[in-house]
Design a protein that fits this description.
Elements: E1 3-5, H1 7-23, H2 26-33, E2 42-43, E3 46-50, H3 60-65, E4 72-79, E5 95-102, E6 112-114, E7 120-121, H4 137-151, E8 161-162, E9 165-166, E10 169-173, H5 174-181, E11 191-201, E12 213-223, H6 225-228, E13 243-245
Antiparallel strand pairs: 1-6, 2-7, 3-11, 4-5, 4-10, 5-6, 8-9, 10-13, 11-12
Length: 248
């Protein structure tokens, strides 16, 4: 579930992510994003924040975006302690995102806000329909890339590597989060999703022309639960003009 974190709480779970990804095997990375038996056809494809709230008690996302001086939204990867499974249901995903408001120089201005996360059931033959209509083939390729890798047991630590060390998150321009909200008009049951994707490219270093590299990325989209059943999307475009951290 969503929650506000203290500095100590954030440091603990952010450090847990870095320690995990530095020493994880491909099997461990796959297990992090795939539900345990018997729900092995469920995967984590996103993290999300609710928009529902009131003028005096806004949602965590709205509160963060209302921070005076905000110019960027920092998204950091964290790893929660293992949770207990429910009756007939797998334990909730341990991989989460933590957002905070930052100024133009990247200095933190707000509290730390932890995302919600759920498993999603998906069959390989349904991959082209993930999340409904995607307006740009580039974005669809990113989202499908992650889903294909997850369902074919191809998730591995290398997807979270950078030339500067383990990938710790992304820094987004404020507009990547504000622009989708114009389509919401009133904040009721909508949720802002940070969808998981894989970007395929040829890096400058290490040079590898025989096969492209792939790196985990995030795509910001706004959805309404009342429309998700038929795949309709609330906002039009997807947003991802983020910068990797590190170097960030």
């Amino acid at each position: 579930m969503e929650k506000i974190l203290t500095q100590s709480e954030f440091d603990t779970i952010a450090g847990a992510w870095t320690t995990f990804i530095q020493g994880a095997s491909p099997t461990e990375v796959q297990a992090l994003f795939q539900a345990a038996p018997p729900a092995t056809n469920q995967y984590q494809l996103s993290a999300s924040f609710s928009l529902a709230g009131t003028a005096t008690n806004p949602s965590y996302l709205v509160a963060m975006l209302s921070t005076p001086g905000i110019a960027q939204v920092a998204a950091r990867f964290v790893l929660l302690s293992p949770a207990e499974a429910g009756a007939g249901t797998p334990a909730a995903p341990r991989f989460r995102l933590v957002l905070y408001a930052a100024d133009q120089r990247g200095a933190r201005l707000s509290a730390y806000y932890q995302s919600d996360a759920t498993w999603q059931t998906i069959a390989p033959q349904q991959l082209t329909a993930i999340g409904g209509l995607v307006p740009y083939n580039m974005v669809k390729g990113w989202l499908n890339g992650w889903a294909i890798a997850a369902t074919t047991q191809q998730l591995q630590p290398a997807l979270f590597n950078t030339a500067y060390g383990p990938l710790q998150g992304y820094n987004f321009d404020l507009g990547d989060f504000l622009d989708p909200l114009f389509a919401a008009k009133t904040f009721t049951d909508q949720r802002l999703f940070l969808r998981f994707g894989l970007k395929t490219y040829y890096p400058a270093y290490p040079e590898s022309l025989a096969a492209p590299a792939q790196t985990f990325g995030l795509v910001v989209r706004l959805y309404s639960p009342s429309e998700e059943a038929d795949g309709a999307e609330l906002s039009g475009p997807s947003y991802d003009m983020s910068l990797q951290v590190p170097p960030g």
